[in-house]
Amino acid sequence: MIVPASYFPYICSPKQNNIVIEINKLKIFNDPIYGFITIPNALIYDLIQHPYFQRLRRISQMGLSYLVYPGANHTRFHHALGCMHLMQKSVETLRFKGVVISQEEENALNIAILLHDIGHGPFSHAMEKSIVEDVHHEAISLLFMNQLNTEFGGQLSLAIQVFEGDYHRKFMLQLISSQLDMDRMDYLKRDSFYSGVAEGNVNSERLIQMMNVVDDVLVIEEKGIYSVEKFLMSRRLMYWQAYLHKTSLVAELILTKVLKRAKELTLKGVILPCSEPLLFFMQNKITLDVFDSETLDLFSQLDDFDIISALKSWQKQDDFILSSLSKMIINRDLLKIKLNSEKVSTEDLHGLKERFALENNISLAETDYFIFKGKIKNQAYSKEAEPIRILKKDRTIEDVFDASDQLNLKSLSKLVTKYYICYPKQLV
Questions:
Q1: Tens digits of per-residue pLDDT, 172-185?
Q2: Neighbouring-strand partners of residue 16
Q3: In whole angstroms, what is the distance from residue 35 CA to residue 29 CA?
Q4: Residues 224, 225, 229, 230, Cα dihedral to 10°
Q5: How confident is the model over 37-95, as pLDDT tens digits?
Q6: What is the pLDDT of residue 132?
Q7: Using the 8-state DSSP alphabet, how is residue 335 labeled?
Q8: Short-list 320, 331, 330, CA closest to 370
Q9: 394: which of 22, 168, 258, 355 is 20 to 30 A away, CA to CA?
Q10: 3-class secondary-structure state, position 373
Q11: Which range among 5-9, 136-140, 216-220, 380-384 has the greatest average pLDDT?
């Protein structure tokens, strides 16, 4: 006898040759950061099992940072599960403090944070500046969520509403996207662990325990202010030591140049060896307006292996620019990069460009792939964005910027800009 699936709310019952196969959906992940992470229900299990989400196992969380920190090979799959775990802890804490959160709202929060990064492509930031240059990963995340909502019969509707900030309980969006959200709490702790940059480690448990909601606003109780200060300082240090480390930066810049050159050649009719999904995005200019379900499906087939495999093949191409830049990443023989507090003048680059063009028989315009300048910015806390609110003992609420007695917190709110110049090492 075939038992209806409705009899098993947490059991999957696919039919194979008219035989019901029962699958336990109450799985547990063993995470090196938090220990055991539980899947709360069957719907979230099915979302995790979906090919769209499983793709995140093949998307590196820190891009090319493993060229600096060999341990930084963790994935966005790791990160998404960690965020969901922290969301579960946050809901548990808020309920304990008397904040009413329904089962449907809890599920929506878990789904929204689980899928918040599902739109990231391989080496996402490089892709967004080269071959998918007009579509941000957050917009693609929303496209994935809407597609999954259709496949799952509208069960993600509330999660999408919360994710877009359209739900009437505004503190829920703050848990997902703010200056102190589950996303930042997890990636700082996780990236610190895998990279070995100890300065980035944050006390997420303490921060969550200090959370509360007052007048539909997420607040941190005053006794947790030092944990917030440590969180902000950790964020600043992780950006300088990891995310904006000069070697990570130049590697990402080179990858952006590689993909731009590959797209330029492809549009000129040059046939480059690569996967079909990657070829599609190199052959077409993609905007959000034309990002239909077919395009989304092709995007869902892209992962780090497509890019690395292409780079390995492109090393052997006749095009000097494409092959040279591809070899730089594969062999970790990168461009020289210098950071300065002052702007780099165009005149400083011109002499280098003329010399490199002459030595390698390329045009002056083509030297832009090898010799270029730019700037990076780091701001741990923004006064203009929605603040981190501190609930004081007298029940008043104050911006952490004003509540803190630490002078260094004032400096963390300043936007720090550094200027860089990149050029081949042989020109030193």
A1: 999 999 999 999 99
A2: 19
A3: 8
A4: -20
A5: 999 999 999 999 999 999 999 999 999 999 999 999 999 999 999 999 999 999 999 99
A6: 82
A7: P
A8: 320
A9: 168
A10: strand
A11: 216-220
- Cα dihedral 144, 146, 152, 158, rounded to 10, equals 120
Q: How many residues does the chain have?
A: 428
What string of DSSP letters covers 168-232? S-THHHHHHSSTT-HHHHHHHHHHHHHH--GGG---HHHHHHTEEEETTEEEEEGGGHHHHHHHH
- What the block records as the tokens of 131 is 């071959």
Rounded to 5°, angle at Cα 48 from 47 and 50 = 65
Identify the burial level of 357 via C-beta atoms within 10 angstroms of its C-beta, where 0-12 means exposed, 13-18 middle and 19 or more buried: middle
Q: What is the pTM of this model?
A: 0.91
Q: Running DSSP on this structure, what letter comes out for residue 415?
A: P
Dump pLDDT digits (tens) for 160-208.
999 999 999 999 999 999 999 999 999 999 999 999 999 999 999 999 9
Start-end of H helices in 268-342: 276-283, 293-299, 304-314, 320-330
Helices 103-114 and 76-96, axial angle in degrees (round to 10)? 150
Could you report the per-residue pLDDT of 408-426, keeping only the tens digit for each? 677 788 889 999 999 999 8
Element (H, E) at 29: strand 28-31
End-to-end CA distance of the chain: 77
Structure tokens at 274: 């690569």
**Which of 382, 354, 383 is CA-nearest to residue 370?**
354
Cα–Cα distance for residue pair 406/61, rounded to 1 Å: 32
Dig out the tokens for 38 from the structure. Answer: 């539980």
Query: CA–CA separation, 401 vs 388, rounded Å?
Result: 8
H helical segments located in 50-102: 51-54, 76-96
Give residue 361's region: left, alpha or beta (phi > 0; psi -120 to 50): left
Q: Spell out a b/e string for 124-157, using b for 16 or more CB atoms within 10 Å of the CB, else e.
A: bbbbbbbbbbebebeebbbbbbebbbeeeeebbe
pLDDT at 62: 95
Which of 169, 113, 168, 167 shows the shortest CA–CA distance to 141?
113
